[in-house]
Each structure stands twice: as structure tokens, then as C-alpha cells.
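Attaching the record inline, Q. Sequence:
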Amino acid sequence: MDPKVTRIGGQPSGTAARAPAPAPTAKGTATLRWAAPTQTSAGDPLTDLAGYRVHYGQMTVRLDRKVTIDGPGTTAAVVSDLGSGTWFFAVTAFTRAGVESSMSNVVSKYIP
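Structure, as predicted:
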């Protein structure tokens, strides 16, 4: 079973990208919240924010799953159906032109 991502607020949720290896037995959730960026990396006002991508996986150096969240108004999501173990998460923002930010700091959650 693939993990699912549910937006908190905003429009209907996306679905997680298929993982290259089967996921462990599903049973946990992780709630992620982030602040919307207001400037580009050059310091200019960010006026064309289009959405976010939640990247996640079971190794910090390999966040091999992702889901796209369209719409700049959503700044939280719940990733569900996570198998046991430690899961790592990071968020990127992207513009209408398709320019994607660097990843946020990676955070983790242990699912027993």
C-alpha cells in the first residue's frame, strides 16, 4: 500500500508517487507544516508561487517519494499509511514557471 498525503485546508489531496521498493506494512501518519516563502533566493518578492512538493523516504539521502500540492495557500499536509521505521521529510516550493526551490531542512518521525 502506498502512503497517502492529505492537505490540511486547500483543495483535494494528491497521491504519492510509486516507490521503487514495496513499502512496509502501513500504520502511521506524519503531519507536516511549513511557512510560505515570500522572497526568491535572490531576495526579490515572490509573486508567482504555485505550490509545494513534499519529499519523503526512509533515508535522509534518498527522499525517493514525493507528492505535489498545487496552490500556494496550503501550508500543511498529513502523510498517512506509513510503515514502521523512521521516515524523513522535506518540502520544496515551486513557481508557475516551474522553478523549484532547494529543499527545506529534513525532519523525521519514527513510526513504531
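Residues 32 and 48 are 23 Å apart (CA to CA). The chain has a mean pLDDT of 86.

More tomorrow.
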